[in-house]
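Worked example 2:
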Amino acid sequence: MERANGKPKGTRTTTPPERRMFEAEEEVARDTTPSGIARSVERGDRLAAFQKNAARLQHAMNNPLAALLAEEQLLATEDTLSDEHREAVERMIELTRRVIVLVRDLDGLRGSHLPR
């Protein structure tokens, strides 16, 4: 089914958040009034704090996740596991790897724009 604008229902009709953020940052950068400069400095401070927290979170999560994955992989090599338990361990390994990828994505936040 189509909308009045001719686009299929369920498609994005608004500006993507990344573009809106970029446009807002350009507008702030053009504001050279004292209050505009103060807002830019404040925004930079918030961005630095956000990036520092993202780095801390990533570091704090990496070590336990690596240990968990190693233990799961070691457990998967046990000959005494039933098929049911082996499948459960394989699911655990897959889920741990998914979390590791999510944590790795925090690298993108460390060098990105501050979310609103």
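The first helix runs from residue 17 to 30. The mean pLDDT is 79.
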